Amino acid sequence: MIPKSFTFKSRFITTLIVLCVLQMLVLPANAGVDSSPLKPIDTSSPRATLQGFIDFADKAYSTGVGSLNHYMASSDLYLNAEQMAILKGSLGHQKSAERALDLSELAPATAEETSRRLMIQLKEVLDRIDLPAIESIPDAQMMAKSEFKYWVIPNTEIRIQRIEKGAHAGKYLFTAETLRRLPEFYDTVKHLPYKANASVGWYDFATYGAIGVAAVLHKIVPTRWLIDAPDKQPDRVIIFTQPIWRWLGMIIVLGAGFIFLRQCFRLRQAWKSRARFSEQWVDLLRPISLVIVTLLSAIIFERVFRVSGDAFKVLTLLFWAFFYLAITWTVWVAGGALATTVIAQEHLLAGSIDSQLIRLSLRLITFIMATAILILGADQIGLPAYSVVAGLGVGGLAVALAAQQTIANLIGSLIIMIERPFSVGDSIKLKDAEGVVENVGFRSTRIRTVYNSLVTIPSSQIVNSTIDNMALRDYRQIKIDLGLTYNMPIEKIKTFVEEVKHIIESHPLTRKDNCQVFFYRFGPHSLDILVEFFLDVHNKIDELTERQQIFLDILHLANVMEIEFAFPTQTLHIADLEGEKDNKE
């Protein structure tokens, strides 16, 4: 059952959440712009910092409240241009007051909203405690003579201290420790009465009011329907530091984001089934949809709903973390899709060295980009960049030590791709393998042997081996011995040698300047004729075809000339041992 204090106004705000999501993109360009006053805040001493902070905070409150009160007292439904200009000026005064705070420890992703809330909370604390006379607070001259470069508000732990390094060096600011403890200080004093000229109800108005929703919808829904003036804040039902309307709004946004992601994932599956869409580019739909959902959710939660407390820190940082992870995912998928597109445009074989080199190059580029995005994202959510880089360095060293062989194979593959001792389709000989190269991967090379088996060899072994690339031969050598019988006439041998040489030289695919046909050896069972020549062919099938034709011509010549080829023979002499014995006797 909804409590009675959950008023009609809260229910009305809830019904406008969807409109708020749609209209947030058209938020006035100057609504959150730093409209700095002509005179910036003076932070040259604790006195100047405290006085400047109070002055600018009072200006921000008085101009904002004054404009809203004037609007509420009028009969106008919508804020007019003059009132909007005054409210924007109020935001400029707020920014000036925030410059008195040391925000160096805040995560950049949440710094804008957190600094605004801390500034208002600090003003609420100062409005409830006794402050010393302004003359007693140290000025620049007094601090120049002081040994300690800080000042603490009496009877408190609120400290103003000089910044020694960084972009704000030399300025006196409310310390980061003070800002960390501000919620504690506020909880301690929030029940105390306000002092004179206080910013009454400002923190509750900024924390629980639908200010962001009103800013987004100010041209559609009358602002008076959504908010009350800061000094007239109603009682609200707060659940886990958030009003009910904000919880309902967050549920609606998260539900809409989930539905959007689900539809994008389904759309990806539908597009992948259509031939005209590239599968790799369609895969981009998932990370891009996650980028959109996380970015919009972070902006809506922070600037529209203005989620506060621990929910703000957890949800906002979580959304920004997923946002940068989604961008990293997008870059990685886009790199693979681009590599596939380039390979297809160049009509390269998927497993060729050129294709693998393109993939490896783009993967290296996307890896560098992804690493840079992760470092930037870590810095945005409050993880120091040097810590991330150091972590990546230590992690990289650990991986390198644990995967030395894998890295060696990767480097070997890179050397093969750059030096190109062979290509896919080449016939090569290695120490332990011989066959046709089918694939050159990032870790290994696959070779199809003459037995039709597939041998996978680590690339590090290949670059350290002697590679005989048979495919790069300009000519293919043919070398045989023709053994003639020992009873062959000398003239017939001479004629046969000359005719064989003529057959080879007259063939259209033989090399004419290096043809050798000679009677060169007395073999153990034949007169050996050396036949050596080169064929101008580029594959094994052509080599076998032309070799067969030449060999058939030689056989035909031998038949015509009645040339006999010798068979391997052996002569066995058996001694008559008994006869030899009788002769000796």
Question: What can you tell me about this protein's structure?
Answer:
This protein has a five-stranded antiparallel sheet with strand order 9-8-7-6-10. The chain has a three-stranded antiparallel sheet with strand order 1-2-3. It has 585 residues and is of the alpha+beta class. The chain contains 20 helices and 13 strands. It has four domains: 27-236, no CATH class; 247-402, no CATH class; 413-471, SH3 type barrels (Roll), CATH 2.30.30.60; 475-560, Alpha-Beta Plaits (2-Layer Sandwich), CATH 3.30.70.
Question: Helical percent range?
Answer: 40-55%
Structural class: alpha+beta
Task: Say how many strands there are.
Answer: 13
Widest beta sheet: strand line-up? 9-8-7-6-10
Q: How many strands, what sense, and barrel or not for the largest sheet? A: 5 strands, antiparallel
State the end-to-end CA separation.
Answer: 140 Å
Residues in β-strands, percent: 5-15%
Q: Report the principal-axis shape.
A: elongated
Mean pLDDT: 80
- The value of Rg in angstroms is 44 Å
The total number of structural domains is 4
Q: Total helix count?
A: 20
**Uncertain ranges:** 1-37
Question: What attributes characterize this protein structure?
Answer:
4 domains; disordered N terminus; SH3 type barrels; 11% strand; three-stranded antiparallel β-sheet; 585 residues; 20 helices; alpha+beta; single chain
